[in-house]
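hey so u asked for the seq, here:
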Amino acid sequence: MSGAPAGRPHLLHGSDEALVSQAAAEVVRTLVGDGERTLMVDDLLIDDDVNVHRLIATAGTPPFLSDRRVVVARGVERLGSDDLAVLRSYLAEPLPTTDLVLIHQGKAPKRLVDAVTSVGGVVASTDVGASRRDRSTFVEAHVGSSGLHLSGAARSLLVDQLGEDVNRLSGLLDTLSSTFGPGARLDVEDVTPYLGDQGGVPPWDLTDAIDRGDRPVALEALARMVQAGGRHPLQVMAVLHAHYARLLRLDGSGARDEATAGAILGVKGFAARKALERTAAMGPDAVHEAIQLLARADLDLRGRRELPESAVLEVLVARLCRLSRTRTPSARSRRR
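ran it, structure tokens below
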């Protein structure tokens, strides 16, 4: 017997191919249960040889030598509007002995999501938000389902070490389970040797550290963005330029509240409030100096001086941190 109710379609979608594949493997494992995989599973890739009609024909074929079958369809994002209409027609009256698993790379269109949910199907996005809280939630969920028991410090270490590279988590947990055994209780010293290189981090880890004037953390974030994150130095410059361009637009604008700042910047809520507070904390002189530092670094990266790109960025980040440390709200109030 298999491990889940039959007949419900599953739609898995997300931007990270590895995470989508991992989620699909888990769904198929649950659907097969203790059945014979070779008899139950048909794995199809939508391409020139496999179209939507071949998919529907496979899904509509009764199982042989088993009580149900699992049809996995990869590459659903390649289906056009007419193809999706054919697929929706099948989903309206699916064969009850077939579990159809649809794998869509990227965000699935609403009409496909609605077609799956309207018949009681399961839709799951594998995308993980970029904030640390989102990554923590993702790690907590996967550690919990792995059967391992990691201390709070060990889980926090995983979040920090993986950064944006959360697709490494599944393999890491498998390694830990194989090494220490299912259900093992692990702490920091147990997991540290298996963590590998640090993953990339989102851009605001860098800009937040600069705003705090925290040079060591900012330089670490810079290194992880360029090395693990694979961002080109000019991409890092674009992140920094966008950050300080917001402050420059608010400087002298007369904005005094979140709503006004948001209208000027074209953003809402926390982003507008944060930019407004940062502009007030730095003051016009520091904002203008930051823009000048960015301009000089940009020229250096484009060949004005024969300096390593890493050195140009590190010096820039260190100088921006210095500006933040010397331009705090309390310091400005004491000068008045």
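The beta strands are 10-14, 41-45, 69-74, 98-105, 122-125, 149-150, 185-186. The chain has three domains: 10-125, 132-194, 203-331.
lmk if thats what u needed
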